[in-house]
Amino acid sequence: MAITESFITRRIDSLSIRMRGEQANDVLHALRDGRRRAVLGLLRNRTEPISDEEVAIHLAAADAEKRLLDVTEGELAEWRVSLQQTHLPVLEEAGLIDWDGETNAVAISTHPALQNPTLERIVETDRVDWDEVLEALVHRRRRIVLSVLADYDTALSRVALARAVVEREPETETVETVDADPVEDCCAALHHVHLPKLAAVGLASYDARSGAVSYCGHPLIEDAEWFDLHLPETPRAILSVAEPSQDIWRLDGRANVIEHCRALCEYADDELFLLYTDEDLIEAACLQCLQDAVDRGVDVYVGTQTQAIRDRVREQVPGVTLWEPQRDWMNMSPEREKVGRLLFADREAIMLGTLSKRNDHGIQNETAITGAGEDNALVMLVRELLGSRLDHLDEQSADFLEEIPF
Amino acid sequence: MSDADRSPSTTTHEYQLAPGESPSRGVWTVVAVLEDCPPPELPSLAETIDPEALDAAFTDRAATDHVSFEYAGYTITVTSDAVRIRALECDGGDECDAG
């Protein structure tokens, strides 16, 4: 038979279509395999990294429903190879695990997606159809389709859906051709690719003849939360850049707080500024420290709204300038932790103590954070906040001095 | 387009994929041209072949040379950069119609 050839060369040079797979979501792609979900399910209950062999043996046992000891060499080897060659690299690529290439130790990562309740449910719930459901969701366009459909109670026409999808897609998503209308192009892709896929897993229903599309959803995934997962495509690196800081220390327990209090009082050369909210916090030892500071020539200011504290300080450490804070800024809701004391030495070293709620025995635990150095962020912040007040204390205290009966 | 479009069933058309264009998109685009109808009015390609699997077969790492299948009354042969299409040989019955 004679074959004639005609060439349709509708090659459009300006056509720029995104690369295939570019819009696939790494996290959903990683989750769409049952073995990878099992790895995450295992690791998220561990606090320490474990070896890939240990992962393999646990998953092999769970898979074969047998005890760890009964896993055969063959089963273990098969799992190890599939983990090492296929699954761990995919999980690592998606940023969901940390995998030490040298020691082969694996651990769950700090990827924010792992905190997403929907994804947690997907990892925790063993369902045979997750693979297909997740594959349907891997494509961003299909997630957008579902989010559009979920907004409507009734069926949408294919064209109306395409129009809404194109509107919600980032501009780079749209195929730009000299002759292809983005909505028409999207409409064709919906018909040939995306809607059949969503219908196959029951997430949407699609009547190819009439073009009517409607939403079905998934029993284990709530409508509002999954379609715009807002999954970062790459993990945010906040935790990896934050390092344990030596600038800010945390103190636990009343005794440690008092000890640091004493150290700060001794440290001060020029000025010592204190705020107290709770009478219990003024211990005899503290008052002695204040007296020592006054004796060294340090200007000591004690601010409190509590009359009892003022009376006691006035009586026992007469050299201290008393000050009543104009604003009740340290007395916060009694249900929460509140600031108990603030010490500011020479405007360059600080301690902020907080009091917990009283427990059943009426005991409040005290913790504190401290910072030192002129450039310390905490010191800078408090210096700015208190700055003007610090400079006007003398004036205000004069009023107080008048009230003092002796 | 001339007579070639509606020529006897032995005509083979070749469509060059645009850079970055997926083979599946090429398939429904070229069939729609031949059938003179909008792509969404063709039978869904998904009923014949998984379009994403088809596209994945030609990604860089895959070594597929070509994939052939029948769709909407045509024999389609897809390679990494082109879609070749030939009407199925038949006596003009309904099964050769796209709709």
Give the terminus-to-terminus CA distance of chain A: 124 Å
- The order of strands across the largest sheet of chain B is 1-4-3-2
Judging by the overall fold, what is the CATH architecture of the largest domain in chain A? 2-Layer Sandwich
Helix content class of chain A: 40-55%
How does this model look, in words?
- Chain A is an alpha+beta fold and 406 residues long.
- In chain A, the strands form three sheets. In chain A, strands 8-14-13-12-9-10-11 form a seven-stranded mixed sheet, with helices on both faces.
- Chain A contains 15 helices and 14 strands.
- In chain A, a hairpin with a 3-residue loop joins strand 12 (338-345) and strand 13.
- Mean pLDDT of chain A is 77; it is low at 1-23, 231-244 and 401-406.
- Chain A folds into three domains: 26-116, Arc Repressor Mutant, subunit A (Orthogonal Bundle), CATH 1.10.10; 134-219, Arc Repressor Mutant, subunit A (Orthogonal Bundle), CATH 1.10.10; 248-403, Endonuclease Chain A (Endonuclease, Chain A, 2-Layer Sandwich).
- By secondary structure, chain B is α+β, with helices and mostly antiparallel strands.
- Chain B has one domain (3-89).
- Chain B has two helices and four strands; from the N terminus they run βααβββ.
- Chain B has helices spanning 23-35, 51-56, and strands spanning 12-16, 66-71, 74-79, 82-87.
- In chain B, strands 1-4-3-2 form a four-stranded antiparallel sheet, covered by helices on one side.
- In chain B, a hairpin with a 2-residue loop joins strand 2 and strand 3.
- Classes of the chains: A alpha+beta (406), B alpha+beta (99).
- Chains A and B meet through strand 1 and helix 9 of A and strand 1, helix 1 and helix 2 of B.
Which descriptors apply to this entry?
heterodimer; A: 406 residues; alpha+beta; Arc Repressor Mutant, subunit A; 3 domains; 3-stranded antiparallel β-sheet; 15 helices; 14 strands; elongated; disordered N terminus; disordered C terminus; B: 99 residues; 2 helices
